[in-house]
Specification:
The structure is a single chain. The chain is an alpha+beta fold and 96 residues long. Helix content is 25%, strand content 43%. It contains two helices and five strands; from the N terminus they run βαββαββ. β2 and β3 form a beta hairpin. The chain is globular. Belongs to the acylphosphatase family. GO terms for molecular function: acylphosphatase activity. Pfam families: Acylphosphatase.
Length: 96
């Protein structure tokens, strides 16, 4: 086992126009995770994170409770959590 996991997330609340993507990317990089983040057309933020299970759990907690300073997080969903043999991305990026 590699100890690496991947999951998809979506954050609901006041998360667009408050630098949520920027802070998410920064936090992901600080935790040495890879993946991506983007705004959706339905006013949420979604993405995928990959890395060691402990770091992914820390990121899940950050997405649930912290976010950007001006955001309001109402709900976060996590889907497709799975073990992976190797990272599928090289860095943590913002998608448009």
């Amino acid at each position: 086992m590699s100890g690496l996991v991947s999951l998809d997330y979506e954050v609901f609340g006041e998360v667009q126009g408050v630098f949520f993507r920027k802070y998410t990317q920064k936090e992901g990089c600080q935790l040495q995770l890879v993946g991506w983040v983007r705004n959706t057309n339905w006013d949420t933020v979604e993405g995928q994170i990959q890395g060691p299970k402990e770091a992914v759990e820390n990121m899940k907690n950050w997405l649930r409770t912290t976010g950007s300073p001006m955001s309001r997080i109402d709900k976060v969903t996590f889907d497709n959590e799975r073990e992976i043999p190797a990272l599928e991305f090289n860095s943590f990026t913002t998608r448009y």
